[in-house]
Amino acid sequence: MSTSGIVDMEIVTKEVENDKELQQIMEQLQTDHPPGGKYSWVNGRLLYKGRVVLSKSSSLILSLLHTFHDSIFGGHSGSLRTYKRMSGELYRKRMKVDIKSYVEQCEVCQRNKYKATKPARVLQPLPIPERILEDWTMDFIEGLSKAGGMNVIIVVVDRLSKYAYFITLKHPFSAKQVVAKFIDKVVRRHGIPKSIISGRDKNFLSNFWKELFYTMGTILKRSRSFHQQTDGQTERVNQCLETYLRCFCNDQPSKWDQFIPRAELWYNTTFHASTCTTPFQVVYGRPPPPMLSYGENKTSNNEVELLLKERDLAINALKENLHVAQNRMKKMASMKRRELKFKVGDEVFPKLKPYPQRSLARKRAEKLASRYYGPYRITETIGEVVYRLDLSPEASIHNVFHISQLKHKLGKQHTVQLQQFVLTAEVKLQLWHETVSGIRWSTKLGANEWLVKWKGLPESEAMWESVYLMN
């Protein structure tokens, strides 16, 4: 498979010569006293700031848009990222408008992407790291079909440069296997990390994981219970990777593992709005390799010292860009911010996930009416937006909650729960069925469904469940 598109320069030159506006510029540049400016005439090519100029009516536009957006390395990125990638090599008037229109009309994107909405919450950005490749975030993408014997992806992202590694793994896996993969992929290239932010997963909570990183001198920062935004960076990368794989593996889901190396290259060479550059350029101090080939072999003899100085300047600028991005996000979140504060002794209802995902074949609608459970008493205030609750000893989850997941209990009346709900380590409610009060045939499933009443819940919250799931 070719890694770059081939541009027919004869067609480009011919179309530029037939463009009246560009023809005048060419004639001026080819005189004995060419005017100074952003245009230049080099080796029979019209360039704008060093980029190849295309005619407004160029016949190559559609194929170039396909290369920069639809290809493996285009990754079906959004209009801004596609524009940044394409404008780094080519120049054409109204190119940004055409790219936006093309991306909006892309059927693959329309089928596989969704519009993200910003929930109202109190935003507290994490401190910006001082150096690249020292502070990482980590998460898992599970529930994938088997491909090459693998069905899990570990997503590891550097918090400063946004450089990412996508590591395949086989389920079930142990903490020891995760650590081995992490050392092989990350530690051997960049050394022992200074800190790691992870989701509250059983693998991260294991004694082996904590002891290993304690020995290595690394602090493991776990995301707070029920507030995945703590590790929002990796969650966002997960969405990008999943969308990429959906775009290219829809018709061959058992081969997604073959796209992981290319997905990693695509992500790391893609423009990021928060850093105003690509992770590749931050880490290596130079732009990513161009996607297009012009049929010539070019070499660059830059001084190493100059390259390193430029990279240091780029990292300083990166930190400034991250500060600006964080302030922008905080300002946007504050527009929807709801002032809320609790104190020790207050009773609150925590918001929990009422149903485990028991089937990977299809999504299940969460139909239980109750979204909050308790009440539970606040025993400790941790910072401004985090609280510790007096959970029952049977609860196998962390008892620290973000304020966005809590609702203040109003009134003095206590409603006695019919059942003490048990929280599992996977942050789900453990429910038991009590009776089956009905049965029906589901044409969609091709199986019977039972109307199940759950222990501790009223008849009004009985649910139709597949006989396969109940068994």
Automatic annotation (TrEMBL):
It holds the Pfam family SH3_Tf2-1. It comes from the Eukaryota. Keywords: Aspartyl protease, DNA integration, DNA recombination, DNA-binding, DNA-directed DNA polymerase, Hydrolase, Magnesium, Metal-binding, Nucleotidyltransferase, Protease, RNA-directed DNA polymerase, Transferase. SUPFAM superfamilies: Chromo domain-like (SSF54160), Ribonuclease H-like (SSF53098). One of its GO terms (biological process) is DNA recombination. Residues 123-287 form the Integrase catalytic domain. InterPro entries: Chromo-like_dom_sf, Chromo/chromo_shadow_dom, Integrase_cat-core, Integrase_H2C2, Retrovirus_Pol_polyprotein, RNaseH-like_sf, RNaseH_sf, SH3_Tf2-1. Residues 423-471 form the Chromo domain. Signal peptide: none annotated. One of its GO terms (molecular function) is DNA-directed DNA polymerase activity. PANTHER family: PROTEIN CBG26694, PROTEIN NYNRIN-LIKE. This is Transposon Ty3-G Gag-Pol polyprotein. It comes from Cucumis melo var. makuwa (Oriental melon).
